[in-house]
Amino acid sequence: MYSEDNLIPISALQHVLFCERQYALIHLEQIWEENQFTAEGKVLHERVDAEHHESRRLFRQEYGMAVRSLEQGLIGKCDLVELWYTDGGGVKRVSPVEFKRGREKESDVDRIQLCAQALCLEEMFKTAIESGQLYYLQEHRRVDVILGGELREKTQNLTERIRAIQQAGKTPAAEYEMRKCDRCSLVDICMPKTSGTASKKVDRFIQTQLRLMKNGDGENEEAS
Amino acid sequence: MRKLLNTLYVSSQGSYLQKEGETVVVEREKQRVLQLPIHTIGGIVCFGNVLCSPFLLGFCAERDVSVSFLSEHGRFLASVRGPVSGNVLLRRRQYRMADDDESTRRIASQVISGKLANCRIVMNRTIRDHAAKVDALALKAASEAIDRIIDRIPRAKSSDEIRGFEGQAAAEYFKVLNHLIIEQKNDFIFTERNRRPPLDEVNALLSFMYTLLAHDVRSALETVGLDPAVGFLHRDRPGRPGLALDIMEEFRPVIADRLVLSLINRRQITKKGFSKAANGAVTMDDATRKTVLTEYQSRKQDTVYHPYIEETVPIGLLFFIQANLMAHHIRGDIDGYPPFFWR
Ligand code: SF4
């Protein structure tokens, strides 16, 4: 059991899956990057709020539900939770729905996020959740996600990985990967091309620059 | 590369700044003189009697736009920033390194290597471009003296020794700074560096430029999560932005001094734009200050090659890049602080 002070935001799962250094920069060092949070978050939630709010007698839709699990040590928010009730007023079925702007992804990132939400909901509603849904806004299409053992295991492994990085308290070094870094919102702060394994020896760099300055003595510089 | 955002300098007395939707509105005598979308602004600097509405301040804090208040003559008064800045883990490492003699000595020597190389570049270019008009011998002698100091830096045993080298080099440099003034030589005479208050026009210009630089470096440090107050070369003194002053060193000659020299040498400013108070303090008038600000603003758009990151970048981004490189060294991503070498 984790304490309330020690919960991992569900959003961290997607960051750590994308890049461990990105996770550490955002969550350990609290570096904030505009496009990541404000821009994206806003647009999405405006859309979500605009969705039709439906409620029948034995069925309810709750938007923006705050969820957490002390067992898993997770905390977050669900875009939408759908609840089915029994005639007696008990909860019969719970299903999280996560809204996505883009297309269905090859990676597990969206399914893992949904699974983490489901783990929280299971604890809060004391019920088993077998599936959830991803709703692709542009295509107005819902996709069922079966919350099987493998997905749950992946989600828990990622949570453990996050705890390990937290424990170490050290931001992992950068490793430049074009496909990843070129669409990373932290690339300017991270400087993956000149830090970590790609970094130059600073003293040698300085000696080279000083030598260039002396040899050139400003003679062959272009006019300024 | 990150976008270079403009700094909004407001120096007209009695201006009032307020928020309107997603924009900043500047009013003067109840007349709207400027309206800018917030996402185009990187920082706001107010000189003297300039008012900002609390809603604008809150808005700027939320959008990570720094707002600084300076006296009419450019002395720093206060700044307002949002909750975004500050990075506990990084700052702890910064403080630990600042307490460690060896780390301090290394960073100080790296900073000073950059600064002295950049001083030499300024002198050598004048010798090259204006050999006939200047006292090339005096400049060459000073340049070579600084060169010898550069050679001694790696052997320094303590950061105090580095500070000593810095002092000697500054003396050599300022001794010949007057030779770098090529036009209006009778109106702009530099004999020595003085700042509290500046006693001649050149010192007034230098002090003003250094304040602008300090503001930009300080904002950049806060953006990357470092504490601008705790430096390596500059020891802690309450109210002094030690780390901002450290990183400023390498920029002073090539950005501030060169700008001042070119304003004089191109006759963009004249002696008439200054006044002298009874105590000898020299201050510039509004028009001159505006010329300096406009020129600085436009210099920031010029590009320059950065030898460490091997990219050509706008000058205005250098502050962020160097602050970020310092954060990288403190974090342990790189094995030292690579200063900026002007090419
Ligand atoms: S730029 Fe690359 S290495 Fe750096 S945080 Fe982003 S993805 Fe990770």
Number of strands of chain A: 7
| Mean model confidence by pLDDT of chain A | 83
Supply the number of helical segments of chain A. Answer: 8
Shape of chain B: globular
Low-pLDDT runs of 5+ residues of chain B are none
Radius of gyration of chain B: 20 Å
Characterize the quaternary organization of these chains.
heterodimer
What are the key terms here?
heterodimer; A: 224 residues; 22% strand; B: 343 residues; alpha/beta; four-stranded mixed β-sheet; 46% helix; 16% strand; globular; binds iron/sulfur cluster
Ordered list of secondary-structure elements with their pairings:
The complex is a heterodimer of chains A (224) and B (343).
Chain A (H helix, E strand, L loop, with lengths): L7 E2 L1 H8 L1 H9 L5 H17 L4 E2 L2 E11 L4 E12 L5 E10 L8 H17 L5 E6 L4 E6 L2 H20 L9 H4 L5 H4 L11 H15 L8
Parallel strand pairs in A: 1-4, 5-6
Antiparallel strand pairs in A: 2-3, 3-4, 4-5, 6-7
Helix pairs in contact in A: 1-2, 1-4, 1-5, 4-5
Chain B lengths: L5 E5 L5 E5 L2 E6 L2 E7 L3 E7 L3 E2 L1 H9 L3 E5 L5 E5 L7 H12 L1 H30 L5 H17 L6 H18 L24 H24 L17 H7 L3 H14 L8 E3 L5 E3 L1 H14 L3 E4 L4 E4 L3 H14 L12
Parallel strand pairs in B: 1-5, 2-6, 5-7
Antiparallel strand pairs in B: 2-3, 3-4, 7-8, 9-10, 11-12
The structure holds iron/sulfur cluster (SF4).
Account of the 3D structure:
The complex is a heterodimer of chains A (224) and B (343). Chain A has 224 residues and is an alpha/beta fold. In chain A, 42% of the residues lie in helices and 22% in strands. In chain A, strands 1, 2, 3, 4, 5, 6 and 7 form a 7-stranded mixed sheet that branches. The longest helix of chain A is centred in the last third of the chain and has 20 residues, at 149-168. Chain A is elongated, with a radius of gyration of 23 Å. Mean pLDDT of chain A is 83; it is low at 35-43 and 218-224. Chain B is an alpha/beta fold. Chain B has helices at residues 54-62, 88-99, 101-130, 136-152, 159-176, 201-224, 242-248, 252-265, 286-299, 318-331; strands spanning 6-10, 16-20, 23-28, 31-37, 41-47, 51-52, 66-70, 76-80, 274-276, 282-284, 303-306, 311-314. The two termini of chain B are 20 Å apart. The model of chain B has no long low-confidence stretch (mean pLDDT 86). The chains are: A alpha/beta (224), B alpha/beta (343).
